[in-house]
C-alpha cells in the first residue's frame, strides 16, 4: 500500500531540513523523501499541514521490560548477581513486552531500543535491539545479540564487596575481565582445532565478541574506567563501545583518536554516586567539538524513556548543536547499534519508522501526534 505524507517539515536524521516535504512509503519501507515528488496513482494522501516528521527515535541503552518501573523486586530481572561473570545470560529471556514503558516509548516517538542486562557484573550477558511495539518478544526483535554487556567502576565493586567476594577493586574488575576473555580465546582456539567435545554456553556466547561480530558494550563513567575498557579492547583486538561516558569530556581527544562509539547519559539523573560528580551536558558539547560520535540515552528506568527528547533539548540549551542532537537520537544512534542500513534516517529503502510532531521535536510544547513502526501506526494522540 502506498501512502504519502505531504506538506510536512521533514528532519531526515542526516542533517537535512526539508521545509515543505513529502514522505512516500510503500508497505513497510520508505519509497521516497523530498520536496517535489511525483506521486503515483492509487496513493493515499495525508496532509500534514506543516507538522514535523522525523525518523523514529532510538534509545541505545535501556532496561525496558527487564527492570520494570513501579513493580519492585518482582520486576528486577536485569542483574543476575549470583556471580560476577555471566556471559551466558540473555536479556531477551527476561523482557516483559507488556511493561508500560513500551507504551511510554511509543507515545514519546521512540520506535527502537536496545535492552541490556544491568551493570552489577563485570560481564553481564547478551543484549538485543527491539521495536517498541508488540506483545511477543521474538516478534519485536530487530537484532539479537547486539552486544555483550561489560561493566567497570563502582557497581561491580559495591555488589561483590557486599558479598565478600571478588572483585572488590577496579584492579580486580579488570583482572576478571581479562581472565574471562583469555579463557574464551583459548576455548576459541581449541574449538577451531576440533578439540571441544562438550560446548560451554558461557564461552560460546563470548565467541561473537572475539570474532568482532558484536561489541563489548562497557558501562564506564569515570575517565580512568573508560581508558581501561579501551586498553582491554586493544589487548584482545575486540570492538568496544563506551556506555554512559560521564567523564568523556576529560579525554575527548583520546576517544576521537581511538574512534570509539559512545552513548552519553542519563544526564538528567542526580549525582547519586562518586563517579557521577562531573556529570553534565558539557560532556556532549566536548565530544561534538572533538568529532566523537555519540548517542544520547535515558538508561531507562534511571530516567524515564519519555525524557529522551527532553534530554536532547537540554543539551542544545547548554551548547550542543541541534543537528548533532537529532543525529544522536536517530542516524548516529543507529550506527551505534549497527542497524543504520535499516533504521535511523528517512531514506529510500529503509524501514518506515517515523513520527509526526505538532511542532519541532525539541520544543517543550510539542506533542507526538502519531508514531509509526514499519509503516504501521502504533500510537495516535487523541485530545482529552
TrEMBL record:
<protein>
    <submittedName>
        <fullName>Amidohydrolase</fullName>
    </submittedName>
</protein>
<dbReference type="Pfam" id="PF01979">
    <property type="entry name" value="Amidohydro_1"/>
</dbReference>
<feature type="domain" description="Amidohydrolase-related">
    <location>
        <begin position="52"/>
        <end position="378"/>
    </location>
</feature>
<dbReference type="InterPro" id="IPR032466">
    <property type="entry name" value="Metal_Hydrolase"/>
</dbReference>
<dbReference type="InterPro" id="IPR051781">
    <property type="entry name" value="Metallo-dep_Hydrolase"/>
</dbReference>
<dbReference type="InterPro" id="IPR011059">
    <property type="entry name" value="Metal-dep_hydrolase_composite"/>
</dbReference>
<dbReference type="GO" id="GO:0016810">
    <property type="term" value="F:hydrolase activity, acting on carbon-nitrogen (but not peptide) bonds"/>
</dbReference>
<dbReference type="InterPro" id="IPR006680">
    <property type="entry name" value="Amidohydro-rel"/>
</dbReference>
Amino acid at each position: 500500500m502506498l501512502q504519502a505524507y505531504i506538506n510536512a517539515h521533514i528532519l531526515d536524521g542526516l542533517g537535512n531540513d526539508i521545509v515543505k516535504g513529502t514522505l512516500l512509503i510503500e508497505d513497510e519501507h520508505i519509497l521516497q523523501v523530498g520536496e517535489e515528488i511525483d506521486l503515483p496513482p492509487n496513493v493515499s494522501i495525508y496532509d500534514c499541514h506543516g507538522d514535523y516528521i522525523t525518523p523514529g527515535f532510538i534509545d541505545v541503552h535501556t532496561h525496558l521490560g527487564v527492570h520494570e518501573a513501579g513493580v519492585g523486586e518482582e520486576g528486577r530481572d536485569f542483574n543476575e548477581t549470583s556471580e560476577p561473570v555471566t556471559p551466558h545470560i540473555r536479556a531477551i529471556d527476561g523482557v516483559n513486552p507488556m511493561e508500560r514503558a513500551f507504551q511510554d516509548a511509543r507515545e514519546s516517538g521512540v520506535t527502537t531500543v536496545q535492552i541490556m542486562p544491568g551493570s552489577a557484573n563485570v560481564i553481564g550477558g547478551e543484549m538485543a535491539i527491539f521495536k517498541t511495539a508488540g506483545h511477543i518478544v521474538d516478534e519485536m526483535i530487530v537484532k539479537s545479540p547486539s552486544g555483550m554487556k561489560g561493566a567497570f567502576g563502582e557497581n561491580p565493586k559495591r555488589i561483590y564487596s557486599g558479598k565478600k567476594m571478588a572483585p572488590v577493586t577496579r584492579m580486580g574488575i579488570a583482572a576478571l575481565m581479562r581472565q574471562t576473555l583469555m579463557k574464551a580465546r583459548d576455548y576459541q582456539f581449541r574449538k577451531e582445532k576440533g578439540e571441544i567435545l562438550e560446548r560451554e554456553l558461557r564461552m560460546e556466547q563470548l565467541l561473537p565478541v572475539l570474532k568482532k561480530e558484536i561489541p563489548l558494550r562497557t558501562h564506564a563513567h569515570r575517565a580512568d574506567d573508560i581508558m581501561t575498557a579501551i586498553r582491554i579492547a586493544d589487548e584482545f583486538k575486540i570492538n568496544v563501545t563506551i556506555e554512559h561516558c560521564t567523564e568523556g569530556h576529560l579525554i575527548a581527544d583520546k576517544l576521537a583518536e581511538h574512534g570509539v562509539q559512545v552513548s552519553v547519559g542519563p544526564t538528567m539523573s542526580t549525582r547519586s554516586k562518586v563517579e557521577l560528580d562531573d556529570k553534565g551536558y558539557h560532556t556532549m558539547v566536548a565530544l561534538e567539538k572533538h568529532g566523537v560520535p555519540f548517542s544520547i540515552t535515558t538508561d531507562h528506568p534511571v530516567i524515564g524513556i519519555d525524557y529522551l527528547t527532553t534530554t536532547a533539548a537540554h543539551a542544545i540549551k547548554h551548547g550542543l548543536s541541534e543537528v548533532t542532537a537529532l543525529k544522536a537520537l536517530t542516524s548516529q544512534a543507529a550506527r551505534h547499534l549497527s542497524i543504520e542500513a535499516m533504521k535511523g534516517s528517512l531514506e529510500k529503502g529503509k524501514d518506515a519508522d517515523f513520527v509526526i510532531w505538532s511542532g519541532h521535536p525539541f520544543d517543550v510544547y510539542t506533542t507526538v501526534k502519531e508514531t509509526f513502526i514499519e509503516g504501521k501506526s502504533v500510537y495516535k494522540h487523541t485530545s482529552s
